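Posted in: Structural Biology > Protein-Ligand Complexes

Title: Requesting predicted complex, phosphoenolpyruvate in pocket

I'd be grateful if someone could produce the 3D structure tokens for the following input. Sequence and ligand are given below.
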Amino acid sequence: MSAKPEIVLQGTGVSSGTAFGQILKIDSRNRLIFKVEVEDTEAEARRFMEAIEISKRQVKDLKSRLEEKVGGDHGVILDMHFLILDDRVFQDEILDNIRRNRVNAEWALAQSRDHYVEAYKSLDDEYFRDRYSDIEHVTERILMNLSGEQPFSLSHLPDNVVLAARDFNPSGFAVMDLGKVRGIITESGGRTTHTAILSRGLRIPAVMGIKNLMSLVSAGDIVMLYGDTGQVILNPGRKRIENELKKPAENLPEAGPLRRARLRTSDGIPVSLCANIEFEYEFGAAKANGAEGVGLYRSELLYFRHPDGKPSMEDQLAAYRKLAEEMKPNPVSIRTLDAGAEKSLPSEKPDQCANPNMGLRGIRRSLRSPDTFQTQIEAILRAACFGRVEMLLPMVTTVEEVGEVRRLVAETGHRLASSGIKIPAVPLGVMLEVPAAVLMMESLAAEADFFCVGTNDLIQYLMAVDRGNDEVAYLYQPLHPCVLHCLSHIAKTAARVKKPARVCGEISANPFYAALLLGMGFTQLSMNSLSIPLIRRVIGSISLNDAQKIARKALTLKTAKDVYEYLTPAVARAVPIGIDIDSWAVEINPAG
Ligand code: PEP
Ligand code: MG
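-- Reply #1 --
Done. Output follows.
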């Protein structure tokens, strides 16, 4: 739990829903714009017009990406940006200022911006008043192009983020990973800004107009936001989070009885849904929403919070024990530290090697520091005395890695036994995230007790696509047939070697994908707690038979687009009317 005091902030709720996550601060550039006297005013005018042309091309590209990603209706939002860029009166005013007063383009542009923003802000009509934000977004883009800067990248976001910005440009939706964003909070803006309109269309809870927001929040702060009332709680207390996270389940009509009953498909096949957990306050929500255990506990946060990135055995044991006790009699899978690449520890310098995603991360890194690793192993083993604990290994590539972990676990177990601490058996699981591990499943099965499919990484490595690189982000396609064949292979191999396999990547929480996974043979899924009630209803209302037919057909298709076009209506038909899942299609749209 955060030691920082709880702070209640008030803004305008512009997109309903409650969200909870970690702040990612997008610092809009508080640029200092200087007035510079220019000699060659014609060259300066040309420089300005070139920046306008580049901006127009960028907006055109973003508009088509937005249309592909969230539907044609939403692309028109960027038409307003295009109209401003194309407005001759606006351009002439700035060109005139450059020529008459011999000033630089930045200064002339900023003067016009301030003039228009003031004028719009003074209007009575809310919709027209909010257009000031479009002018600010467009001028920011032109200023960026005048200086040759690259836009802030949003394509590689950590899980469960709440974006905090002074103002959020709606074009950001075209390039960001929508599956990761839980909410948006901004210092300026209101209900009729295009960012608000898009947030509502995408069902992302959002609060705008929060005074002094950027000076109050820090990256990594925990935040809870209420899109209906406009309230934002910084560093919320544990009780509040537990109470709030329970609500979505209670709001679903059938959630009460369903939550207590064993989940089965409409033709009676049992399916278990577990929770992915990072924060200790999520236990309450996981249980309230019917999680049958914790399928993935990301232990990174314990390390991230520690000043030197090395939490003691006692600190770790306290956290793991609490987890085991809270979820009892259900099992909890504690994943060993998965640091490296985009999850580098704050206490360390970011990985400077050319390809950190393929570098020293996950189990490779833990095995490189056996002392630190054994501290974690000991804490996990000791926690097993207080509940059903499993150990899960991230980024496994070879059989030897698992063998080496088994050796370290046995060594630690003997040491504890010789000091009189009797440890129950702790099942050892292997994350399937690297294609090599998928192809070696039969051999790994001799060392592992269960498998856990980490699709977030598996897709990245299968498609050889670094999601941090905007140039290739379009290739991150969860519905690509190669991903489907790989998952189907995992389900079949796991059944053959008689080892359980659950899927714990983001896609488990997508209703369309969950149905597809069921049809492939996965009957264990793990996801963020808030998604469990929806996926319960989807799985509870589809028959295994229908899901299998859908999966069989999807596996015959050749492109992600073909799969998307087949899958979304097929699943919508197979689950009864009354469950609105259409808006979830955006998340798996390969055009996104
Ligand atoms: C995954 O890669 O799918 C996964 C669950 O691990 P993480 O998201 O923590 O990398
Ligand atoms: Mg992973």
